[in-house]
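Forwarding the complex inputs:
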Amino acid sequence: MYYQLINFGNEEFYAYPNKSLYWKRLNTLIVSDLHIGKSISYAKNKQFLPPYDTKEILNKIFVSLDKIKPSNLIIVGDLLHDVFSTLSFKDQDHKSLSQYMKNTDFIWIKGNHDKNIHIEGFKNFKNYKIDKFLFTHIPIETSLFQICGHYHPKVKISHRGKTIFKTTFVHNGKIFILPSFGILTGGLDINSKQISNVLGKKNLSIYPVGQDKVYKL
Amino acid sequence: MNINKSNLLLLHPLNKWMKKKKWSWFPHQIETFWHVQSGSDVVVFAPTGAGKTLTGFINPIDDLIKLKKFKGLHTLYISPLKSLANDIVRNLEKPIKELDLNISFQVRTGDTTPYKKQKQKQKPPNILITTPESLALLNSYENAKEFFHNLKYIIIDEIHTFLDNKRADLLSLNIERLQTFSPNLQRIGLSATLKNKQDAKKWLCRKKPKIVSYENSVLPKIKILESKERIPWSGHMATYSINEIYKEIMKSKLTIIFVNTRAQAEYMFKNLWLINKKKLKIAVHHGSLEKNLRLKVENNLSKGLVDCVVATSSLELGLDYGDVEKIIQVGAPKGINRLLQRVGRSNHNLNTPSKAILVPTNRFEFIEAKAAIEEIKKNNLDKIDLKEGSFDVVAQHIFATACAGQFNINDLYKEIIKAYPYKKLKLNDFKQLINLIQDGGYVLKNYDQFKRIFQLRENKNIYKLVNKRETRKYRMNVGTIIENPMLKIKLGTKTLGNIEEVFIQNLSQGDSFIFAGQVLEFQSMKNNLVQVKRSKSLISKIPSYSGGRMPLSTNLANSVRALLAKSNMWDLYPEQITEWLKRQKNISKIPKKNEYLVEQFPRKKNFYTVIYTFAGWHANQTLGFLLLRGFKEFNYKPLGFVANDYAIVLWSLKEVKEIKTILNLGLLDKHLDNYLEETSIVKRLFRDNAIISCLIERRLPGMEKTGKQVLFSSDLIYTVLKKNEPNHILLKSSYEDAKKNMIDYDRLREILKKIDKKIILKKLTCISPLAVPIILEINKENLSKKETDEYILEDLENEILKEANVLSIN
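Prediction (whole assembly, two chains):
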């Protein structure tokens, strides 16, 4: 699989076009903001999005697990969209999950969307520390390097008279924000207040996600 | 029927008023009265100034007086524009007040206050003047049946604007609903002159259908601007003629300059001001301007307080501006009907001819203008193609029906297929649309507990809305007009109007552009407001509004071809045009009326193929893409193409040898799906479909969700659906819409069916005179959105790598 090498906190990470991040030294795969079951949550309000997000996101995860066979899978928050989300899990989905859990440790860091939800087999954490890295949904005050999600970053690129928006990996040397791994999730401009309050505006490393490639700006 | 009808209206309640005004009844008014009285549904065709509005009201007023103190709603009048509805009220008021008739009438549009609307529902007037959207809303109320059950007449004004679009579909469904409520309802349509009158009749009439027609014998006087300047090869801005246009404005009391796009309007307006030494009062009018600014211009126009207004189609319909002396059409007329409609805005008097001047902005447009004038002399109008109704409108109608109360799906289906656009609607498609409203209509059933409408247990054919809250959602989403995401422009605290978000995204702080006739400087964008200040800069980007690209009508295209081939006419043209055509004849060929000229020549290392189809922009754009694919298959290494109304040019690395093998019907069948896939045409139409069918909610003023986000999320839905459920009814609906509206499928098919025997191939050593205009239009790569995105990213990355003096590691 094509990847973009990203240096962060003196470690090497691989950014994949499927919006996952891989830490090779520790054989750990990292994803964020899957928002599984967003469609069901919208259906409550009679907005009937296609009900295929759960199936597709799980498949995307499973394909990655098959290829990389990581020891750990860290989900940095918002695995589920809300309490109704598990309604969209089929029996087969639960079976597959427990199958994969035999070889991979699932580390579920809770996000604002899935704080109080429990799924069998998942280990829940508020945040998770490895060496000098802290995995957390929303960044906190700390001297550690942080890897987080929550913001669904996108970047606006204006070039030769054209403007495009692209989902992106982004960090400022101290804080790394993953793009959303979900399929019905929108995004937020990295220049927006919410993100620049966290990352600042200067010295950002930006890695937009293309069709089969992650770029570096 | 040969009876003497001339005395019929002598006893009419309005006759006294007519006499006082020294007016007499028009023959078509008498005839309409007769037919309607005999129980017919009627379509009346008459030019402006021939008392069309009054024609519609003759029977209702007569009936109301005879019935004496009729209580409740008697007549419904549907107008395509809110402003027109207000105008109708003013016109109706005069005779009713002067004669002191006991008839009540009111207007109901989106602008009517909630208080007034509530009162109207409690105590309806005899005559209600409204729009298709307001009618749809009225039909969604629980008491709709009682409200309409005594309705005697429905009058559809400007019915020719209602025949070929989704608004027409919505209206047709609601007319059938009224007919169910009030079986005796009679329909009266009022239209400008049309070529296919029978089609309009079929669309509207059910009971003893009749056509009444009144042709104007006074032809308009239209000429082409005689310019001493050189008409440019290419372009659309008419800069060359600006001084001569200004002189024409000075000669007349009041002039309207019509242009084809909003960008042209802004450009023309600005350039006129630059040379406005006589301080003429010149104004601009287009659909993006703030309502108050527009109303101000309209007011000044009707009071004769301006000398000239530059306008787009926004001034085509509607109000009677009696004092307009002259129309100037800048740019190609595109169609006969459109030109006549515009020309008709001057001199609203039947016996004096309208006056108009055409200003072609390039050489092909000169031929087009000439051809249009010829066709108008022959009274050869464009046909309006009736189309099959769109699915998304039916979905919205189902939702509306559910809002009004529980309903039987079999009854609803029977009612819908009475509407002309839905004659062929299949029961299976209808059921899928029911499911769409119920829970999205997906094969995977995840939403059983969240349904919007549900079947009654005791009768599976009866559906009911799950709760009242949903009616509010329907009412927020009613209608078929979906605007592009627009942002408000603020100069200080003053709102100037709306501009497309896409345009603003391409601006940086300090960039200038023209809007509402002023050069403005972009400052910031906050909370969906675009803050600007006045700029002193003369260099400006011009708003590139996406709307307004009208393709050349088939009728006019045929006439252009015929005219081009008539070489005995050439000497009557300006010398530069004659010279241009003569040289074309010597170097290459002028195609005959039924021929398709194909020219091929080398130029700057590339190989060029130019095909003159005269098929209009939509069809040519589609054909260009298909040929690109065809060329790829034959390994000619095509690099790109550009299309305009008249021709397509493709350029490739290798010589294209088998053009006759490639250019035929097979090309369309083989590559069309790919085309729709790779361009974002279907995706864009899917957004409209998702909103109209109420699958996703429309952006409303004050809502946090910006239009862009709606666009974004509908793109996501499209992608997921495409992958998991390619047969979903909304995808089908979007494809159908694309075929109908965006790619001119039928027109292209017609051409390709017979093209192979009519190709005239000319191998040249260099570019031909006829090809120059389109070659000049080559300025952008025509890559699909997907490819463009990747290209931009890659290019940017490479540039940065170069800058940093690092070579790519791969």
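The mean pLDDT of chain A is 92.
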